[in-house]
Input
Amino acid sequence: MRNFKNKLKLVLCIAASLILAASFFASKIFNPGKRPAGTGYNVILLIIDDLRPDHLGCYGYRRNTSPHIDKLAGESCIFKNSFSDAAYTLPSTISILTSVYPDSHGVFHVYKDKLSPRIYTLPEIFGIYGYKTAWFSVLKEPHLDIKAGFGRGFQKAGNLGASLDETADILSWLEKNRGKKFFLAVDARSVHDYYDFFIKAETGKNFSLISDIRKVNEQYYLKLVEAARLGRPPFRSPELLQGNEELFDGNYREGKEKMILGLLDAAGRAEAAVIAEPLYRDFVKRVGPDHPNLLVESYDMAVRYTDEKLINPVLRKVKELKLYGKTIIIITADHGELLGEHGFYGHNHLLVDESLRVPLIIRFPCLRNPRSIKALAQGVDIMPTVLELTGLIVPSQVQGKSLVGLMCKTGSGNAREYVISEGESGKTIRSADWRLLFDYSGNCLLYNVVSDPGGYDNKCFKEEQVACRLKSALKAWEESLPSYRDQEYFFDPGVDKVAQERIRKTGYW
Ligand SMILES: [Zn+2]
Output
């Protein structure tokens, strides 16, 4: 009798699990019954790190920086108002490859945060459906460290340095997989590192901004150390220093600087950025007089270089292999770049259009009417769009909206009312007309992106209703997000085990 009861329990348990599993998968299937199991399209996702759309010909730029991107854009849907989910590489790239907002996936700090195993990555999903998957990027770059988790599901990870010398490896991979379904993702750092080898090539002088920037970083690090020793902001609690002496020994190493920043809370990091800002301003002032427009010209050269050395050969190879008719091609960026606007260079200081607006060019085989789309879009929308176009399961974690409905009338999806982005200084919400953000001190800034695109006229108090509406939308968005922060961390391999243990005990890691 007991045996029978146990067996019955087991059968009921299995039946319950099957029902649960069936409902779990059912909730993830896109439009079951109306869509084939998969269109079998290949996908190529080209993320050009740091690329501003307004420096591309197809977005109206005055210089001929991007002839090959422009040609592709002529056969694609071009999103004119696409924004990144974060103002810097790590959280933003994770969001593109998971469709989970940074606030929800919680992967912000290099050498530390790790993506929750509860989140599917895009390559994992493609892998389930028998796709070959590959990732090419600067593998040693901490912001693109596949240990952070987004690398999960890529069967191959190849290095692609800032000079793009390994583009041939991408072409070989395409050739090798020509007869299979594939997902190829690339993050090119050639535009991101524009101030280095392009400037050297242009000036012909033994002069490298990279080493000068490193000197600025060292000064910044030493100022952080000094602040920690004196217990000044951003180091409010003296216990941060206790037990972490080796991090504050005054010998600069980039990894250490990043770990110190990781020990700070959001307010501390914002104050640390305030320490850095005058140093960088001074640096730009020092470089500027001898080299007027050098930074912008180098940036443009880097865009043209990427167009020639990566985009052109990849597109040519896809056509040569006769795969153009069955391959979805997407060109985008993980964030923009401030080129002197608002007094800044770089991208993680201010959450404004220049640091957040990205190109989004989507070309897919059955596209009938290539065109420009003004509707708002953002990085988290890429994964549901790609999955809808390939006819594959959309996991329930997805927080973005498919853009297929905007690109062709038969698809699903509606236009967004807002886009939301994050950075070390906080969050920002943008509608078609307004952007609301908070500065390092938590002050509200509201500006009209149509009449005042530079954001110089703060309307926070004059347009109270608009500010209130955007604030409540931001709050509702925050409350709607699940948290995937699993407290699973990893350490910079340069920090020894004893130090790791001590840092862990502080409870800050
Ligand atoms: Zn980046």
